[in-house]
Design a protein that fits this description.
By secondary structure, the chain is of the alpha+beta class. It has one domain: Jelly Rolls (Sandwich). Helix content is about 20%, strand content about 30%. It is built from four helices and eleven strands. Helix 1 packs across helix 3. It is globular and about 65 Å long. The relative contact order is 0.26.
């Protein structure tokens, strides 16, 4: 019988924000910036509010602490193969906020130029309800699948347990969750139908050589 191995897995890391005070401070900073610049910017967002990408500046100490948390998660998933014990690279963060009401969503997109991307959920907007009809899931698209399935969309490769591999993964956010994934991974957000307000923060981490390296 042929031996089958599975290569080229895609990492997806999940952690939590431990400081309730920090979450409160982040929300207050976002509310203040939303009031200052109610128009925001339009990028991948459909409806909702998307801030400028300078939250690392206007978000205060709580924003810098969140960026550091994302960097720690990235460090745990990354190695410099030419200098394993002392990486030659630092992370340069870019950060912005999203405020989403009912009907808001994000189109599929990725983040060119970055190495890792993260999303932290300050308020999932579900108001404690578990109803899957509320939507708002983070969608991840298998980067290998679209081309091979164009001529045979019902065919799936099997995984190590002989089950059909999924070509889309849905992650239901929860307040205090932070997730990290490669910036090249296409992702989207399904239309949010909750009664509350979804507040999240996105972070891109760009790899930059340290001075003198």
């Amino acid at each position: 019988m042929a031996e089958t191995q599975h290569f080229f897995s895609t990492p997806f890391s999940v952690d939590g924000l431990a400081s309730k005070e920090g979450i409160t401070a982040l929300r207050q900073a976002i509310e203040a910036e939303h009031a200052r610049d109610s128009d925001g910017v339009q990028i991948s967002n459909i409806n909702g509010w998307h801030s400028n990408t300078n939250m690392i500046d206007w978000g205060g100490e709580a924003a810098r602490a969140l960026a550091y948390k994302a960097m720690q998660m990235a460090d745990a998933q990354t190695i410099d193969t030419k200098s394993p014990q002392d990486s030659r690279f630092d992370w340069v963060p870019e950060m912005w906020a999203n405020v989403s009401g009912k009907g808001s969503a994000n189109q599929y997109h990725f983040h060119p130029g970055s190495f890792w991307s993260a999303v932290a959920y300050i308020d999932d907007g579900y108001e404690g309800r578990d109803d899957p009809a509320l939507g708002g899931e983070l969608q991840l698209l298998d980067p290998r699948m679209p081309m091979v399935r164009m001529t045979a969309p019902d065919l799936r490769m099997v995984d190590a347990n002989r089950q059909p591999q999924q070509n889309e993964i849905a992650i239901r956010p929860r307040t205090g969750m932070i997730v990290l994934f490669p910036s090249w991974l296409q992702h989207a957000v399904r239309p949010f139908k909750g009664g509350g307000t979804r507040v999240s923060i996105a972070i891109n981490l760009v790899a930059a050589l340290k001075r003198g390296r």
